[in-house]
Amino acid sequence: MLFIKLLILLIMGICLLNKLVGLCLICLCFISCSSRITVLNKGVAGNNSRDLLKRIEKDVLQEKPDLVVMMVGSNDMVNSGKLVAYPEFKENYERLLKKMTSSGVTVVVMSPPPVDTAYILKRHDRILYDEPLDHKLDSLNRLVGQIAKANGIHFIDLYTLFKSKGSPSRAPGSLTMNQANFGKEDGIHPTKRGYMLIAETLYRYLKKNKLLRKSKKIICFGDSITYGAFMEGAGTSTGDTYPSFLKNMITTGQQY
Asked: What CATH number is associated with residue 207?
C-alpha cells in the first residue's frame, strides 16, 4: 500500500516537472524569437514627403526590412518652410508605398497626431497658409487613410486617437508638448506619454494582425515624431522614443 502511494506521488511529481519544463521552454522560445527582432529608428527631424523620397533607398530599401512603419505629413502641412500641396503629397506618398511594396516590404502607415495651431502660428506666418491648420491636419488624416485603403496598406489613425484623448491641449496632462508639461510652446511633438501611446497602439495592431510573426527587421520611417524630438535617445531605438517603446514591448511581450 505504501509502495503504491509512493508511486502515485512520484508520477505526480514527474507530471508537474514536465509542465514546468514545458512552460520554461515556451518562455525561452518567446524570448529567443522576440530578441531576434530588430527595430531601427529612421526618423529625421524636419523631413517632409519629398525628403523621405530622397532617402528611402539608403535608409529603408538597402536595409532590407520585413516591415516598415511610416509616418509623415506634419511638415508637409504645417511647417511653412516645407509645405507641400495635397496633390503632390498624394503622389509622393504613393511613390513611397510603391517603392516599399514592390520590394516585398510589409507597410503600416500612421497619420500624424493633431497640433496646437495657436502655438504653431507663433513661429510661422499665418499668411503662408491657405486654410486653417487644424483643417489641413484633418484633411491629411483622411487622405492618408484613403491612400492606404486604395493600396491595401495597413493604416493606424493617430490623429483621431490623440483627439479622443483630449490632445493637444494646454493642460499638464496633454499628450502633446506645451508650456505646462514641457516648459515649451511646442504644440506638435508628443510627450513621453504620447510616444508610449503611439508605441502601444502600434504594438497592439501588429499583434492583432499577426505582423510580428515573420518580421525580423522593423524600420520606423518618418520625421521628427519618429525621430523622437526632445526625448532621451532621440534618433535611436533607445530611451523614450516610440521605436524604443515598441522594441521593448516586442521583446518583453508587456505593454506600459
From this structure: 3.40.50.1110
pLDDT in tens, 46-86: 999 999 999 999 999 999 999 999 999 999 999 999 999 99
- List C-alpha distances in Å: 240 to 15, 196, 199, 234, 255: 44, 8, 10, 8, 14
Instruction: Look at residue 183 and tell me if it is in a domain.
Output: no
3-state SS of 210-246 is CCCCCCCEEEEEECHHHHCCCCCCCCCCCCCCHHHHH
Query: Each residue of 156-207: pLDDT tens digit?
Result: 999 999 999 999 999 999 999 999 999 999 999 999 999 999 999 999 999 9
Residues pairing with 39 in the sheet = 218
Q: Which domain holds residue 140?
A: 31-157+189-252
